[in-house]
């Protein structure tokens, strides 16, 4: 072992710059407390500091930075949604994504690949045409293409899908991209930390102190903090946070499983999604195939993955790409997806004054990281929903004014 490495291991002081500051103690009071140090929570902290000058902020995380759904998704970034609210929101997100590596001085491996949503039936072709028209209307690059377009972008594909589900066309979205997911949390965390935000890992929120309908503090595993503003930006745990606050949302938590292969020679440039076969696939810069399926149909608060999932996803994958039969799966996992009845998020104010929600991210949250951070920072700073998120309020369920995004939720859920 090189001497330098041994000296480094034995030293109690490390002089090179660290990504995050370690704070031994929490302050007794903060202007804003954010629950959850995933991409969304850290992005909100970053934009609170950068855009609104609010730096007396604590981000509390019961585990570690990016250890929840930020590190458990399949990293697909796109804006080819179906509702005007969705298209505008995700388009603003894609525009922010493009500059993040330069902004953070950290390589997020943001890679524009083109995104195909395959249509295997006439009715799926009709839906893709509808989505393409909505997308174009809002200036999003999206078009209905034929099977030849798909074959040209991905010559290895069996267009007949083993004769079970021939590909009739696809929604092609040129800006579709992937990025390295944990690096996104690190970038936002680093940017927030540099501006004075405190990130406290291994710090669990155990209760909300609400008096006279207003938030006044937070009980944590490391003591009490007083604050007048709390933003909950958690995945899988929103029902527990809202239970502490004394109200409910219509969120149900379902597992969403994914898996990754051993690295292989680069062959797959675009991102492919098939609603009928319930699969999505992309290849990382390291050569791994990142693959996912549709949501598990039962409610479960767990991040365990199953053999049943690997078997059924692999079977569908081989219908499309028979040559992959010798490739090994090296990891599989599950995220906890907060599903809403209309497949849109829940963002903004709540019945408790000073408590804000960034929740309901189901299977669509990673791509929203930058814009959710920016719009939630605005909402918290001004106590007024950002114009891009008014369609995502919790109140919409009481008003029967849903934002039906279900046609664009990647694969059938
Ligand atoms: O919304 O693009 C998406 C997606 C991919 C996998 C799960 N959701």
What can be said about the biggest beta sheet?
A: 8 strands, mixed
Q: Give the overall silhouette.
A: globular
What's the total number of strands?
20
Give the count of helical stretches. 11
Radius of gyration: 22 Å
CATH level-two architecture of the largest domain: 3-Layer(bba) Sandwich
- Contiguous runs where pLDDT drops below 50 for at least 5 residues: none
CATH-level-4 superfamily name of the largest domain: FAD/NAD(P)-binding domain
Overall helicity: 25-40%
CATH class of the largest domain: Alpha Beta
Question: Structural class of the helix and strand makeup?
Answer: alpha+beta
Structure, described:
This protein has 413 residues and is an alpha+beta fold. The chain folds into 2 domains: 26-72 and 182-251 and 342-408, FAD/NAD(P)-binding domain (3-Layer(bba) Sandwich), CATH 3.50.50; 112-175 and 252-339, D-Amino Acid Oxidase, subunit A, domain 2 (D-Amino Acid Oxidase, Chain A, domain 2), CATH 3.30.9.10. It is 29% helix and 23% strand. It is built from 11 helices and 20 strands. The chain has helices at residues 3-10, 39-52, 84-97, 100-104, 122-137, 147-153, 181-194, 238-245, 307-320, 369-382, 395-398; strands spanning 32-35, 57-60, 76-77, 111-112, 115-119, 143-145, 169-173, 177-178, 198-200, 205-211, 214-220, 223-226, 230-232, 252-261, 271-274, 279-283, 289-292, 329-339, 346-349, 355-359. The strands form 4 sheets. The protein has an 8-stranded mixed beta sheet. It has a 6-stranded mixed beta sheet with strand order 9-2-1-13-20-19. Strand 10 (205-211) and strand 11 (214-220) form a beta hairpin. Helix 2 packs parallel to helix 7 (181-194) and helix 2 packs across helix 10 (369-382). The protein is globular. The protein starts with a helix and ends in a 15-residue tail after the last helix. The chain binds pyrrole-2-carboxylate.
């Amino acid at each position: 072992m090189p001497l330098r490495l041994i000296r480094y291991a034995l030293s109690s002081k490390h002089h090179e710059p660290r990504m995050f500051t370690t704070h031994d103690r929490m302050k007794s009071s903060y202007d804003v407390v954010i629950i959850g140090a995933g991409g969304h929570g850290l992005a909100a902290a970053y934009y609170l500091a950068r855009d609104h000058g609010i730096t007396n902020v604590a981000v509390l995380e019961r585990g570690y930075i990016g250890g929840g759904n930020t590190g458990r998704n399949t990293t697909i970034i796109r804006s080819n949604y179906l509702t005007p609210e969705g298209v505008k929101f995700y388009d603003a997100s894609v525009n922010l994504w493009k500059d993040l590596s330069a902004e953070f001085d950290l390589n997020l491996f943001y890679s524009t690949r083109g995104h195909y949503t395959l249509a295997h039936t006439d009715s799926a072709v009709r839906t893709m045409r509808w989505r393409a028209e909505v997308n174009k209307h809002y200036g999003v690059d999206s078009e209905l293409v034929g099977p030849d377009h798909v074959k040209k972008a991905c010559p290895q594909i069996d267009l007949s899908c083993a004769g079970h589900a021939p590909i009739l066309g696809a929604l092609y979205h040129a800006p579709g991209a992937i990025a390295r997911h944990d690096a996104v949390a690190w970038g936002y965390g680093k940017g927030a930390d540099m501006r004075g935000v405190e990130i406290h890992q291994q710090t669990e929120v155990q209760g909300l102190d609400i008096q006279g309908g207003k938030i006044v503090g937070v009980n944590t595993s490391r003591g009490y903090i007083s604050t007048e503003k709390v933003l909950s930006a958690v995945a899988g745990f929103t029902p527990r946070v809202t239970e502490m606050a004394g109200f409910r949302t219509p969120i149900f938590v379902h597992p969403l499983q994914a898996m990754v292969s051993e690295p292989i020679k680069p062959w797959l440039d675009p991102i492919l999604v098939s609603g009928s076969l319930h699969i999505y696939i992309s290849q990382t810069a390291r050569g791994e195939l990142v693959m996912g399926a549709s949501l598990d149909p039962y409610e479960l608060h767990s991040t365990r993955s199953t053999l049943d999932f690997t078997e059924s996803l692999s079977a569908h994958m081989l219908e499309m790409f028979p040559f992959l039969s010798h490739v090994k799966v090296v990891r599989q996992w599950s995220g906890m997806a907060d599903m809403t009845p209309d497949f849109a998020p829940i963002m903004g104010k709540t019945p408790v004054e000073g408590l804000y929600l960034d929740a309901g991210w189901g299977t669509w949250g990673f791509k929203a990281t930058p814009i959710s951070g920016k719009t939630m920072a605005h909402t918290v700073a001004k106590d007024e929903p950002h114009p891009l998120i008014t369609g995502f309020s919790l109140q919409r369920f009481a008003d029967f004014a849903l934002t039906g995004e279900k046609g664009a939720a990647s694969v059938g859920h």
